[in-house]
């Protein structure tokens, strides 16, 4: 998180680096909130940079409510989730100026905990998890040396993509330490699917003979000396022999991007006959000089 001066006020700005396979666009900018959308073919990330003004111990809860800001975030999430087929993931980071035992390591006054209820409810609704370890201080009071707190948070509902999240090595004279987060947002390639077997071209008599030749050593199921282990082994042998015979004697389809699902083998034969007749007609026209 970095800060820049705009209209006489310090506003948080979000720094990011992307690759060619990823598209980035700013979706909304209002005071104390910057939202950036990063998307690929199948997934989109809504990244929010948030600033919530600080509170005092005796300040009424309704005077310090962050619900309007959270409602704006919720509206943005719904707008960009309902207008696309992509899966939507969330990353929220910023100076939230709220105290709660869920992310703080020090005793907190109950009055201050009440001010964080809105954030807790929002995090639970979207299943957001902390990226920094619980209790990692991010703020050191300059006017009271030794006093620290955790008020800068980074949360997400896709922690599997998080490579690392740690405090930045320098505070540049500020009473806050920035949070450095690294994410793996590279598109994931789908594994190629295995083509289906062409059962219509199977030689079932040969497949049956192959399976029978591989299962001649199986125990007789009706025998009184057969145990449960023998029966399980016989079933596994039968399954593996059947799969091996199918792989040997049934070819797999080789789908073409130009294939037509309605082109049956009978139509294919007629297509070949028509093409051959057309070529004979073209050849006769050439011989006659037509």
TrEMBL record:
<protein>
    <recommendedName>
        <fullName>Endonuclease/exonuclease/phosphatase domain-containing protein</fullName>
    </recommendedName>
</protein>
<dbReference type="Pfam" id="PF14529">
    <property type="entry name" value="Exo_endo_phos_2"/>
</dbReference>
<dbReference type="InterPro" id="IPR036691">
    <property type="entry name" value="Endo/exonu/phosph_ase_sf"/>
</dbReference>
<dbReference type="InterPro" id="IPR005135">
    <property type="entry name" value="Endo/exonuclease/phosphatase"/>
</dbReference>
<feature type="domain" description="Endonuclease/exonuclease/phosphatase">
    <location>
        <begin position="46"/>
        <end position="178"/>
    </location>
</feature>
<dbReference type="GO" id="GO:0003824">
    <property type="term" value="F:catalytic activity"/>
</dbReference>
